[in-house]
Amino acid sequence: MENKDYKTLLIDDTAYKTLYTKKYENRAHWSPEDAREIKTGIPGTVIQLNVKVGDTVSLGDTLCLFEAMKMENIVRSPHAGTVCAVNIKEGDKLPKGFVMMMIDEEK
Amino acid sequence: MNRKDKSENLNERKEQAMHGGGERAIDKQHAMGKLTARERINKLLDEESFHEYDLFIQHDAREFNMANKEMPGDGVVIGTGTVAGRPIAIFAQDFTVAGGSLGLMHARKITKIMDYAMNMRIPLVGINDSGGARIQEGVNALAGYGEIFFRNTMASGVIPQISVILGPCAGGAVYSPALTDFVFVVENVSKMFITGPEVIKTVLGEEISMEDLGGARVHSEITGNAHIYSQNEDECFSKIKQLLVLLPDSNAEKAATVAVKNPKPEYSIKKIMPVNSNEPYDVREVIRAISDDSCFYEIQELWAGNIVVGFGRLEGNTVGFIANQPLVLAGVLDCDSADKAARFIRFCDAFNIPIITLEDLPGYLPGVDQEHAGVIRHGAKVLYAYSEATVPRITVILRKAYGGGYIAMNSRHLQADFVFAWPTAEIAVMGPEGAANIIFRKEITEATNPDEMRKQKVEEYKEKFANPYVAAGRGYVDAVIEPAQTREYVLHALSIAKNKTVEHPAKKHGIPPF
Fold this sequence. Notes:
The complex is a heterodimer of chains A (107) and B (514). With 107 residues, chain A is mainly beta. Chain A contains 1 helix and 10 strands. Chain A has one helix at residues 22-25, and strands spanning 7-11, 14-18, 37-39, 44-49, 56-57, 62-68, 71-76, 81-86, 93-94, 99-105. With 514 residues, chain B is of the alpha/beta class. Chain B has 3 domains: 3-246, Alpha-Beta Complex (2-enoyl-CoA Hydratase, Chain A, domain 1), CATH 3.90.226; 269-430 and 467-496, 2-enoyl-CoA Hydratase, Chain A, domain 1; 432-465, no CATH class. Chain B is 39% helix and 17% strand. In chain B, helix 16 (432-439) packs across helix 18 (450-465). The radius of gyration of chain B is 26 Å and the shape is elongated. The A-B interface holds A 1, 6, 9-24, 27-30, 42-43, 69-70, 93, 95-96 and B 203-206, 221-222, 278-282, 304-306, 326-332, 336, 362-363, 365-369, 372, 402, 430-435, 437.
């Protein structure tokens, strides 16, 4: 027991001396979402890019075509606004959670 | 053909069929560090007790020029035998024959032995070592899996079902083990996944080895799909034998009683608990200090270590122990530990095994990941499983019993039969620090020395509430006992609860928060 790599776990203001599990140490840390970010939900390939920086888009406009799981997915704008960043080009293979572009929301 | 020739003919046929996929395939199996199906069966069963059925079965693959292909036994061995003198039914997939692939007749052999096990009310052991569905048999292979899953479900809670993963078990095939009670895995041998590394690479572009995706370690530490981990096949079979002797043959029986032995003297209950109540200790030491001969057969030892579950014996009878483990994550409840405990409670309840709960937890694990993973729904499983269980249920509160965790761990309020507490028990709505910060917020913030005031208030709260006597004063605790009296009190409680009879309101079934 003496040689173990003890850590501290805080519960209701009390610090407990204990061991962590691998799963607890590797847990995902949460951060608030940036509404401007258009992210990939699954890994896939960009097959068509429809916008460039500076474009004004309306809610539902097609931003790009993204092939994933053998399906051609239409990525639509979640809000009206201006494209302020584009991080992809046609043919790019993207992992899950990749920020494809950013769209400033219209006030 | 005369009588002698007929006997010779039988012997020839047997010899041919028993040879499985032939010399080369058997050598290949051995080279992979794996035993053959029949070697495995003989390792598990009592010597010469195995009786094989359907040895001469013919496969049903007609398409793709398969009709004339030889597949002895259609890639699976089935039969009955004994373990420690008690009957079991067994099937073992034979990887040396067409990669143990599952076709129609292969599945029929398995469902036949499952039906025997159910009708005879004896445990079923299934050894999985198969490349998956035999593609050439198409939808018939799928039908075979479905027939197996249905029987696994019908047998659930009636006979103990054990799955042993000794090779690949991929795609739909994984759902038979997942429906059974205990899944045994072996390092470097077991591989279980729904979609394999190749599909993951093609579709997602992620490269991962079979071992990292669904090896024995992964299922024992990360997913919780496996229950017992072994380094090699020999160790695995000896662990299956140890488990089988602890279990009854069916839900109509109680596990066999063995000779009573006192706990081993090296497990002294007096020496376990640290003085400081925020310090860890290994709760398994407490279990070993209570259980006959200090026997403890731990289930899912490597997963969700913040709760410990497993079988022990008290006065020769099998009991289930569930204990918060202060050594890991301070013993909190979280999604995984709740799943682990709830399932174990339901197994014990189904098979007439009394449940002994040893409690020491500061509450639930805080965190966005936990909340978003549905700790509410998972945590509710523990409440549901305890509340529903009609086997004798005894709780010993060793130290902390705070808040929702106190209620969940087989409290009097969930109709525990007996609740005992050690003098070190702290049964309260939350820990002293947290409680004092809320109750005395005003006094603390307005004090000239807030830290000093907080310390004083925490001490006040501790003195008044961090003990077993408030709960005992309401009858929520039946008796406050010295740690050294634990075994005696639990034994007595079990003897009193021997004929426990509790009836649930009539219903088809409840709706647990799966």
